[in-house]
Design brief:
three-stranded antiparallel β-sheet, 3 strands, about 60% helix, about 10% strand
Amino acid sequence: MGLEGDAVHEVCGMSVAVDVVGGKWKLHLMWVLSEGPQRFGRIRRMLDGVSEKVLAENLRQLEAHGVVHREIYPEIPPRVEYSLTLLGEELALALRPLEAWGDRHKHQLLGHPTTPAPATLVDQVR
C-alpha cells in the first residue's frame, strides 16, 4: 500500500494522510483504538452500523499502512486484539485538532450545511 517511484516526490503529505484515514470508518477506528487495545467484537459494538466484512477490511488496510497492530494470542479459542502502533499513535495525535475543530463547529455546520466558512479565516491561515 506504499507509494512507489517518482510518485513519492509529487504527492503532498495531506494526500498521504487522507489515503491512510480516508473512508467512512477509518477515522472512527482510530478513535476507538486510541482508547487502547480492542478486540474485534468490541470494536464492532462501538461502531454502530459497520458490517464485519467492512470492519475487517478497514482494519487490514490500517494494518498494511503500519498504523494498526494485530496481535494473535495462542489461546483456545484464539484471541485477537488490535492496537495502534507508534505511527498510529502519532496519527491519532495529529487527528485530535481535527476532532476539536469538529466539536467547536458541529452546531453551525449541522444547522447550516450550505453556509460557506468565511474566506478571511482561511486566508489568515495561509
